[in-house]
């Protein structure tokens, strides 16, 4: 089964939406999306990972800025989701992307 790339904005305004995003990531993994490349809302590369715990930590980082007194650095993430058979392709794309 071939899964196409999925690129989406991950912005939430309340804790219910945050929990829904966490569920979406778990569902994507269950559907075969094993890798995620994450960008901040300014388009800067943050990390590529297949670990849900890392993604959830990043979401919680923004949560602290949204709902407590943490200093604001970013507002949301842009996410590229893809399957394991696309990892090499994304690595090549990211090398070029990070040069600019």
Protein traits:
4 strands, 100 residues, 44% helix, 3 helices, four-stranded antiparallel β-sheet
Count the strands?
4
Helical residues, percent: 40-55%
Task: Kindly report the spatial arrangement of strands forming the biggest sheet.
Answer: 1-4-2-3
Which outline best applies?
Answer: globular
Number of helices: 3
Low-pLDDT runs of 5+ residues are none
Terminal CA distance: 33 Å
Which percent range describes the beta-strand content? 15-25%
The largest β sheet comes out as: 4 strands, antiparallel
Structural class: alpha+beta
**Helix/strand order:** EHEEHEH
Radius of gyration (CA) equals 14 Å
Give average pLDDT, whole number: 93
Oligomer: single chain
Walkthrough of the structure:
This protein has 100 residues and is α+β, with helices and mostly antiparallel strands. It has helices at residues 15-30, 52-67, 87-98, and strands at 6-10, 35-40, 45-49, 77-82. The chain has a 4-stranded antiparallel beta sheet with strand order 1-4-2-3, covered by helices on one side. A hairpin with a 4-residue loop joins strand 2 (35-40) and strand 3. The relative contact order is 0.25. The mean pLDDT is 93.
């Amino acid at each position: 089964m071939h899964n196409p790339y999925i690129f989406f904005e991950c912005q939430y305004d309340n804790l219910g939406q945050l929990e829904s995003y966490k569920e979406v990531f778990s569902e994507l993994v269950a559907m075969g999306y094993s890798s995620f490349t994450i960008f901040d809302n300014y388009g800067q590369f943050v990390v590529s990972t297949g670990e849900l715990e890392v993604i959830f930590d990043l979401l919680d980082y923004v949560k602290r800025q949204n709902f407590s007194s943490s200093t604001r650095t970013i507002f949301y993430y842009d996410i590229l989701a893809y399957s394991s058979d696309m990892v090499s392709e994304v690595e090549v794309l990211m090398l070029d992307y990070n040069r600019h």
